[in-house]
Design brief:
Layout (H helix, E strand, L loop, with lengths): L5 E7 L12 E6 L5 H8 L18 E6 L3 E5 L10 H17 L3 E9 L6 H12 L4 E6 L6 H15 L7 E2 L8 H12 L5
Parallel strand pairs: 2-4, 2-5, 5-6, 6-7
Antiparallel strand pairs: 1-3, 3-4
Bound molecules: guanosine-5'-triphosphate (GTP) and magnesium ion.
């Protein structure tokens, strides 16, 4: 994937605020602080297209970015952050479900887990929703630079068991080393059904 342009378009909470459904789209989901924004920045070769932070739960909106003028990447708000106000938490489920259910141009969701963490209830619920709405899912395990080889094998096994997915289903990724970047692009391009130039 050659990235020529990458631009923020807009933030939304409701369908009438989404960008027009005129281009293929790939969205990124995962627990707050899992590394969604960092992963998108690595994919599009931008240091800070998407704001990253060490304070979890900063991104509470659905953020649309247009790449090469030919497709959208969507940074979805993270789940599982304790300090988010209750009112925001209550809105999160309907906001995400509505997006997953009603977005006609959504071709795939990159579902992100942390190699060091056992998937939690919200992660499993997200997998259920993706299945319920028939959204093609690209499972990714990130932050693999943070563990040694043996912990990597153990983490992968633990995550595969908890999710019921095959260990082979996961692309291993690191935003620091950029390991896995090409493989994720290949899987996104497959989901788009073309090479997304
Ligand atoms: P929210 O938007 O708050 O839900 O978080 P997020 O999922 O977008 O996570 P973000 O990309 O902001 O990353 C959270 C923290 O993890 C930041 O301090 C990143 O620098 C760090 N981080 C993300 N990916 C990696 C990685 O692959 N390796 C390492 N070592 N750190 C990472
Ligand atoms: Mg983020």
């Amino acid at each position: 994937m050659v990235i020529k342009t990458a631009e923020f378009v807009k933030s939304a909470t409701r369908p009438d605020q989404y960008v027009p459904a005129e281009l293929p789209e790939v969205a990124f989901v995962g627990r707050s602080n899992v590394g969604k924004s960092s992963l998108i920045n690595v994919l599009v070769n931008r240091k800070a297209l998407v704001r990253t932070s060490s304070t979890p739960g900063r991104t509470q909106l659905i953020n649309f970015f247009v790449i090469n003028g030919s497709f959208y990447t969507v940074d979805l708000p993270g789940y599982g952050f304790a300090k988010v106000p209750l009112s925001v938490k209550r809105q999160w489920g309907p906001m995400i479900r509505t997006y997953l259910e009603q977005r006609p141009t959504l071709k795939a969701v990159v579902f992100i887990l942390d190699i060091r963490r056992t998937p939690q209830e919200e992660d499993l619920q997200m997998l259920d929703w993706l299945e319920e709405f028939g959204v093609p899912t690209i499972p990714v395990i990130t932050k693999i630079d943070k563990v040694k080889r043996r912990e990597l094998d153990g983490g992968l096994k633990r995550i595969a068991e908890a999710t019921g997915l095959s260990p082979d289903a996961f692309t291993l990724f690191s935003a620091s080393s950029r390991t896995g970047r090409e493989e994720i692009w290949e899987r996104i391009e497959d989901a788009f059904g073309t090479s997304a130039e």
